[in-house]
Amino acid sequence: MEIDFSTYNILIVEDSELNLFVLKEILEREHFNVFSASGAKGAFENLRRQRIDLILMDVMMGETNGFDLTQELKSLQEYKHIPVLFITNLKSPDDVVRGFDSGGVDYIPKPFNKKELLQRIKHQIKLIESSNTIAKQTAQLQEAILNRDRMYAILAHDLRSPISSLKMILNILTMSPEGSNTGYGDMINTGNDIAEQLFSVLDNLLKWTKNSLGILSYMPQEIEFDEMIKGVVETLQPTAKLKNIEIQLTLQSGLQIYFDADIMKSMLRNLLINAVKFSHEDSLIKLNLYSDEDDVVVEIIDTGVGMSVDAQRQLQEQIMEEGKITPMREKGKGLGLWVVYHFIQKNGGTFFFESEENVGSSFGFRVPLLNTTSNQKKLHIIN
After folding, report:
1. CB 368 within 8 A of CB 295
2. pLDDT, tens digit, for every residue of 349-368?
3. Fold of the 138-217 domain
4. Which CATH number does the domain 222-383 belong to among 3.30.565.10, 3.30.1240.10, 3.30.420.40, 3.40.50.2300?
5. CA contacts within 13 A on the Cβ side of 373
6. Do the beta carbons of residue 216 and residue 330 sit within 8 Å?
7. What's the number of CA atoms in the CB half-sphere (13 Å) around residue 48?
8. What single string gives the DSSP state of each residue in 119-168?
9. pTM score > 0.70 for this model?
10. What is the residue-averaged pLDDT of the chain?
11. Reported confidence tier of residue 160, pLDDT bands at 50, 70, 90
């Protein structure tokens, strides 16, 4: 690694004019920029005036002790990163240990050997250069990730509107008697299912990228939860119909929450789409809504393929890690559930799931009730 030593500033803190002259002569011949001070006051003046990359610190300087001065420098945030090499004729193990304890990274014994001196200094400069290179590459990588997320957000946003319009048209056709009488009813239902899944993927991607970029707007409002659930289920009925799946709702009425409506719809849609996707044909999905103390509980239970213990562990690791890239690492696997988990946790709720292979799964969450005293505890089943 070729290093331009002329870009590095070294501060020598030394009260011996002879030692200072020799050190400056050696370092300036290697093209280092050299600054000097005879004690603590001069050292701080130099540190305030220019960037210092490395300090050569004498230990015994009259009233100034190099160990104590180094400890003081390391206690200050702006100087703690600067490596300090001690120049000392103290060679006992206790003195060496004290030097390292005070924050030094190495020491040069007096009288110093020129080759050893330069070798130790250049080694520290190489470490600084490597650290700077890593920091620069990290910044470039972070910028690349940021640009990628911006691209995802723009792409998802631009595609979300036309897909949403297409989904609305197909929803109308699936619910229209004219649409089913054309002989293309199954094709319309299939098209509606594809549009619904595309919309869900784009919606999840948009929320994930906006959250990563810190630009996701959150606008909570009072929500009649059972009415919202009915609306979301109605839009997904064509998808369930393709597999002849019945979605049974057991909803406690009068439950209100304070949540962003768009985000809550996304969470419900994600859980229902997953339940339909992994359910067998001609099966039943149960969606339960009820209050439990100060919370509202949503459970979506299917009798589908279920998951093995190992698959459940992997899914839990996938969606519950805080790293923003994690949900995308396996072709988007778990992104929808990550959206559910992330926003439930962010708003004081709890996400849960349990599953048994070849038996089925139950996914759900708890969120705080808006008003625990005014809720009417009425249950009704909708087939």
Report:
1. yes
2. 999 999 999 999 999 999 99
3. Helix Hairpins (1.10.287)
4. 3.30.565.10
5. 0
6. no
7. 6
8. HHHHHHHHHHHHHHHHHHHHHHHHHHHHHHHHHHHHHHHHHHHHHHHHHH
9. no
10. 82
11. low
